[in-house]
Design a protein that fits this description.
The protein is of the alpha/beta class and about 220 residues long. The protein has a single domain, classed as Rossmann fold (3-Layer(aba) Sandwich). The chain has 8 helices and 7 strands; from the N terminus they run H-H-E-H-E-H-E-H-E-H-E-H-E-H-E. Strands 3-2-1-4-5-7-6 form a 7-stranded mixed β-sheet, with helices on both faces. Helix 1 packs across helix 7. It is globular and about 45 Å long. The chain starts with 19 loop residues before the first helix and ends with a strand. About 35% of the residues are buried. The structure holds S-adenosylmethionine.
């Protein structure tokens, strides 16, 4: 039954962005040198200590929002440490109000991924899995470089490796992401996605509104 009223993505862009290849190639060739923000650097250094102490496989849940998926992934992967990452303190605080995190195998961190992914790369981290569930689509054509595959940090996301899982309600986002991966030498599969048990707040909202969902998977490890 359709209960929600979330509107599907509308864009002034027809299909894959005409500048996608040019933008991705430029980012693959140039290092991203913007200085790190202090708060993300501090959060990263703290996590580094916790990781060293935990000695478990690492799973990243980037753009975790309120962290529903982070808690679910921690149950799915009891052997791992799952780290939920989001820049929104407001969303992360909602999680803390509803879940008891004590003794759980997951951590939520407020970070900017433009910095965090570069720091994790520099430190040589190799997550076993990397989830990127419903990132902001930025559907306006002029916002191509705000989409993760159009951003300067994209090569670092790839370098981190792991089994990547990206989900979106905008098929063009995945088609573009797939082309960007191809330019970097990685293959991927896109499939329609449906679930009885939504893993995130946005997944639930989109599905309740009858929107189509898609999933992209790629094995990024060398
Ligand atoms: C559409 S929401 C999806 C949240 C969650 N994955 C879900 O499905 O419910 C996108 C999330 O990406 C986060 N985000 C966007 N840009 C970010 C960045 N540069 N660093 C960290 N998080 C970011 C936002 O704060 C927001 O919570």
């Amino acid at each position: 039954m359709m209960q929600g009223n979330s509107r599907s993505v509308s864009s002034n862009q027809q299909g894959i962005h005409e500048n996608l290849q040019k933008v991705v190639r430029r980012h693959l060739q140039q290092p991203f040198q913007k200085p790190y923000q202090q708060h993300t650097l501090e959060a990263f250094l703290n996590l580094e200590k916790q990781l060293a102490a935990a000695d478990r496989p690492l799973i990243l849940d980037s753009c975790c929002g309120t962290g529903l998926s982070t808690a679910a992934l921690a149950q799915l992967h009891p052997e791992a440490l799952v780290v939920g990452l989001d820049k929104s303190a407001h969303r992360l605080t909602k999680h803390q109000a509803h879940f008891d995190q004590a003794g759980q195998n997951y951590i939520l961190l407020q970070v900017d991924l433009n910095d965090f992914w570069r720091l994790a790369c520099e430190a040589g981290w190799q997550p076993s899995h990397h989830y990127l569930l419903y990132p902001n689509p930025w559907p306006k054509s002029r916002h191509l470089q705000r989409r993760w595959h159009g951003s300067a940090v994209f090569p670092y996301l790839l370098k981190l490796g792991g089994q990547l899982e990206l989900r979106s309600n905008w098929q063009t986002y995945l088609d573009e992401f797939q082309m960007a991966l191809q330019l970097a030498g990685y293959s991927s599969q896109i499939l329609p996605y449906q679930t009885e048990t939504p893993m995130t707040a946005f997944e639930r909202k989109y599905q309740n509104s009858g929107q189509g969902l898609w999933q992209l998977r790629s094995q990024l490890s060398a």
